[in-house]
Amino acid sequence: MANGDSISIEVQEAKAAAKLEKVPMLAHQKPEKKGWKKGIAITDFVLRLGAIAAALGAATTMGTSDETLPFFTQFFQFEASYDDLPALTFFVIAMAIVGGYLVLSLPFSVVTIVRPHAVGPRLLLLLLDTVALTLTTSCGASAAAIVYLAHNGNPSANWMAVCQQFGDFCQGVSGAVVSSFVAVVIFLCLIVLSACALRRT
Amino acid sequence: MANGDSISIEVQEAKAAAKLEKVPMLAHQKPEKKGWKKGIAITDFVLRLGAIAAALGAATTMGTSDETLPFFTQFFQFEASYDDLPALTFFVIAMAIVGGYLVLSLPFSVVTIVRPHAVGPRLLLLLLDTVALTLTTSCGASAAAIVYLAHNGNPSANWMAVCQQFGDFCQGVSGAVVSSFVAVVIFLCLIVLSACALRRT
């Protein structure tokens, strides 16, 4: 009886020793991978802050750019505003939506920092980022096409350039378009980072 | 001596038996995962064929849409072509590039069918697809902005609609824009599929 007890205790001690041997090996292996993925997650969060600034900056610059010319006739005052052109109205709405999405995506980005190996939030962010990239690119490109026309006009279609009259308005609108393209580049970086982090390690 | 030989043979046989036992288990486990990933890879290939058709169709429709009006003055003949408008020229070039990229990406898609667990080609396709999505969206959106202007004009900027005169030209251009947006939707599906397949299983 006493002999049997001592044997079982010895076996348990041997198992405990085996566990102790295993645990440090795992602990040594994990932080390396975790640190790599955590770094990506933190970069993701910082880039997202930059994208928020670019998107909301573009929306407000476009939304506040209007110009009233100092001369007017009896019946008409010359004024240019973003809501005269449908493409620029679409720009303001789309950039506001993208800015709102980016703010709402910050908690998910924090989750990927806390749990670098979670696949769900990262996959969700990748897919929604792709949709937001499409929205940002389309509104930026259509606004750019209209701004180009406002700067240069088109003699074939008999569309005159309007930027000689409305110089400040055109500058504000051009700045907003540049800011939206900065947001597009940041979204591309975010998608590349997410894809690399999703890869099996 | 003879006894030792027989023992070593027995051990080898036991090992062989253990291997035989293992192989069917692995073979039973693998096809399930492989089939799932292979299905995604085949869908990817078929969608890519559809995207090639949409992209090259858009480029050729836009490139061949020109219209010459049946009346002319002594010095001038009224003609509309895609190269009168910079946004439409950009559209033709960008859609041709996207079509070429899609054709060149087919071999990589075949590699993901043959080796469903390879991470490299899939990651490469995901990243290049994202860039191609951006290019397609930007050229489609800028052409859409110009086509909208050609259809409706803009009284604020004093830009007249030109589609009353050039109806056939406008129809061809509108068709090309719709085709480019079909390509955008297919690219979104491709990216979603690639992201799901990249996920650890």
From TrEMBL, chains A, B:
Keyword Glycoprotein: no
Entry keyword Cell wall biogenesis/degradation: yes
Segments forming domain Casparian strip membrane protein: 38-185
Example of a GO cellular component annotation carried by this entry: plasma membrane
One of the GO BP terms on file: cell wall organization
Subcellular location: Cell membrane
Keywords, sorted A to Z: Cell membrane, Cell wall biogenesis/degradation, Membrane, Transmembrane, Transmembrane helix
Protein's membrane topology: Multi-pass membrane protein
Stretches that traverse the bilayer: 45-65, 85-111, 123-150, 176-198
Protein task: Regulates membrane-cell wall junctions and localized cell wall deposition. Required for establishment of the Casparian strip membrane domain (CSD) and the subsequent formation of Casparian strips, a cell wall modification of the root endodermis that determines an apoplastic barrier between the intraorganismal apoplasm and the extraorganismal apoplasm and prevents lateral diffusion.
Family affiliation: Belongs to the Casparian strip membrane proteins (CASP) family.
Subunit structure: Homodimer and heterodimers.
UniProt protein name: CASP-like protein
